Amino acid sequence: MKYPIKHGGRGLPRISLTDYRFQGKELLKESEKSSVFELQDGSILKLFSPQFLFVSEFCGGDLETKIMDTEKKRCLPEIMSPKCGVYEENNFAGYIMPKAKGVPFSTYLATQTKEDRENLEKYATILAKVENILRRANTLGYVFPDLCSLDNIFIDENGNIELVNYDGMQIRNHMAIETSATFRSQEIFMHKKYRNQKLFTSELDKLSLLFFYFAMTFQIDLGMIGQENPNTGKRIRLSDILQLIGLEEEEIISKMNAILSFHEPGEYFTESAFVIASKYYLEEQGNFGEEKYFKRLVRK
Predict the structure, then answer these.
(1) What is the mean pLDDT of residues 235-253?
(2) Measuring CA to CA, which residue among 189, 258, 3, 215 is closest to residue 123?
(3) Going by C-beta distance under 8 Å and a sequence separation of 6 or more, which residues neighbour residue 12?
(4) What kind of fold does domain 103-299 have according to CATH?
(5) Architecture of the domain made up of 14-97
(6) Average pLDDT over residues 33-60
(7) Cβ neighbour number for residue 284 with a 10 Å cutoff
(8) At what angle do helices 250-260 and 270-279 cross, to 10 degrees?
(9) How far apart are CA 165 and CA 147, in angstroms?
(10) 160 pLDDT higher than 50
């Protein structure tokens, strides 16, 4: 689809929602926040609800400026960036972006074979690809506070990774309104390690990548750390989770503690993921629900 060049004082071209090219659009996803459609040319249209636009503005975010100020030189090919702003009666309504290749990561995990589910090297390789995107994006001023939502990560049959939900990202001085519910504790989003006034720091991405690794590899939500164990009445600790999966490498555990700590700088976890793959096998030892598997590390 070729868009009319009407900049309206901002970087991206803009198009009216009444344009005939929006006819025949197919609804893909709908929520209180937005509706996502596929257009006939394969592009993706994302329209925001008036309520979400109001809340975004109320919280100090200028979503229209964030989208319309998108600069090609500050975009990565793995991030599905806006190509055109969409307006309804001169009011900002949403944007058009390319369609991500592959499937959402949650779909990918649900369709794995047992051999796939036990492949530590594959998980480490995927983590490395995500980290590579995050590191390059960090240098351009991006932070990803909603990365742990697996539907924002797409993977194709060749293992290539692409990220969606541009409007939920923090981009330079354009704040992010959405945050991942995976972290459970809102204290994380307010602590000075992860936040400098209204903007998040890249330390949050290091934390997100660790959560992503455990969700992907072990189907374990690290957000349960600090929550009450209903069987014992005690708070769940990181050591409880590590004992459950059989991870005993002190250096790796020390790195995890630093990532999770409010008082120490963290680092990306990919190197540790490859160390785990070199020293352990991953064995599936049963399931505990639909598409939920109990996995444990076994030393080589």
Answers:
(1) 95
(2) 215
(3) 67, 68, 69, 70, 82, 83, 84, 85, 95
(4) Transferase(Phosphotransferase); domain 1 (1.10.510)
(5) 2-Layer Sandwich (3.30)
(6) 89
(7) 13
(8) 150
(9) 9
(10) yes
